[in-house]
């Protein structure tokens, strides 16, 4: 099984690149699993994506800890301490693609990369700027990866059309087709500028697909008070200091005969108006409750009712 990791920043098109690459592999008849990893509002911050490609059924799931092929879309993101470890996760004989103006020698020297790791460098930013007038690299990254894996160019074009169908929306001038053609042009230009690699043979290898987890240890976590994991802000001038009792017309009333102490209302309350008492029951502080109804909506046993207030207190 071949494991691929894509590393970049929000706004470069890492998620779309991952889908295109996975689609190309699928069109070649392989079993594929692709999975992006990102949070909300990620523009300019690290984004990861993982792809597994195999000629047999893929049973592994989730994060790829040991990769055959690392694709670095943002060169200097690897200088961040939390991301530098990605370079240590390359398997022996693996390959790294760097989007950079630097040559292989400079890259090896800067990141102290072993000679057992293949390195491919290419200035994809400049090509994307020239063809798309943009820093979106998704189709270019897909072109680079597909060429290195010795995939078929026609299947790459087909995958781009499929995966960008919902992304490229046409305007009144019908520019959707123009944008699609430009993305295909970027993918082709990158594809034709690089050489293929022997890494494609790893797809057919019979290595243990669970080897990523051989060194993992089971860790027992200690129980702790729920307040430790609750986002509560207590400094002057913020949420715990702002009285909101005059904002609402309704207030949540908890039926403790129905309450199962599941703490879902406590977790979902956006203003930390719900705490847990010594008997593990939720308690509402109406000074801070703004009657958003989230606790009422989320309670799985309907133990919370919204009662209209008779007066503003």
Compute the number of strand runs.
10
* Overall average pLDDT: 82
Q: Structural class of the helix and strand makeup?
A: alpha/beta
Q: Please bin the fraction of helical residues.
A: 25-40%
Q: Outline, from the CA principal axes? A: elongated
Question: Any idea what the CATH superfamily of the largest domain is called?
Answer: Pyruvate-ferredoxin oxidoreductase, PFOR, domain III
Q: What is the CATH C level class of the largest domain, in words?
A: Alpha Beta
Characterize the biggest β-sheet: 6 strands, mixed
The sequence of SSEs as H and E is EHEEEHEHEHHHHEHEEHE
Known CATH architecture of the largest domain: 3-Layer(aba) Sandwich
Uncertain spans: none
Give me the CATH fold name of the largest domain: Pyruvate-ferredoxin Oxidoreductase, domain 3
Strand order of the largest sheet: 2-3-1-4-5-6
DSSP strand content? 15-25%
Number of helices: 9
Radius of gyration: 26 Å
